[in-house]
Amino acid sequence: MAHTITDACVSCGTCEAECPVGAISEGDGKYEIDADACLDCGACAAACPTGAIEG
């Protein structure tokens, strides 16, 4: 199951930079994770400074 980004996200872009497969992108001012592309590796969650990524 892919990770999800909660409302705690401050749109800093750290998760997008850390994703090894480019599964994270910004849309409508909020970051989103493409569940089909996500490897569920956890790199984004580990890098998130606000703990906004769950999964």
UniProtKB/TrEMBL annotation:
Keywords: 4Fe-4S, Electron transport, Iron, Iron-sulfur, Metal-binding, Transport. GO terms for molecular function: 4 iron, 4 sulfur cluster binding; electron transfer activity; metal ion binding. Residues 1-28, 29-55 form the 4Fe-4S ferredoxin-type domain. Pfam families: Fer4_9. Its cofactor is [4Fe-4S] cluster. GO terms for cellular component: cytoplasm. Transmembrane segments: none annotated. Gene3D superfamilies: 3.30.70.20. Ferredoxins are iron-sulfur proteins that transfer electrons in a wide variety of metabolic reactions. PANTHER family: PHOTOSYSTEM I IRON-SULFUR CENTER (PTHR24960:SF79), PHOTOSYSTEM I IRON-SULFUR CENTER-RELATED (PTHR24960). This is Ferredoxin. It comes from Velocimicrobium porci.
